[in-house]
Amino acid sequence: MLIVLSAFTARQVFSSTDENETDVQEYFFDLTLIFVEDTTFEDYAPYIQKYLKEIGINVSILPQNYWDFYFSVVYDRDFEIALAGYSNSPDAYLDDLLIEDSNSNYCSFNSSIPYYNETNDYIEKIKTTVDPDTKLTYYYKLQELVMDKVLPVIPLFTSNEYTIAWSNLKGYDMSWGLVNSLHYMVL
Questions:
Q1: pTM score > 0.70 for this model?
Q2: In the CATH hierarchy, which top-level class contains the domain 1-85?
Q3: Do the Cβ atoms of 156 and 165 come closer than 8 Å?
Q4: How many CB atoms neighbour CB 70 within 10 A?
């Protein structure tokens, strides 16, 4: 799951504890958090709201139906902060979220953003490097650059994926998927 960031607006919020006392709570930002309703994101949204409030960011929670969310994030790019699930594959993340012409470039990542060229350089090195240790080094350098300097998205967690197979199953390659492996499988 990722938290996707977009534009922020700053404002001051006033709240009253009783009629005679006014408590002024200053927020650095006032954001609306959107996500697809009736998903596990509804469980996570209050935690994000709570923790951001602790650092002076006021968050309003707005669950949306799938299509409203999709059009807000993908087509209109009209959102401040959004929760979205994403593939566990780091390569998919690179190709989709950090490439200017990608359909999944939700944060409008482009060449006018500082460190864009450095980010693309690392992505190209990762794509063209065969040696796993060198590739891993580039991944770490890109991760450091993106998380420290760019920060278009914040990874919150990743779930574990499990594959179960019987010892007599031969010819199945999990990366091909079950249907594409069927004609190779011997039981």
A1: no
A2: alpha beta
A3: no
A4: 14
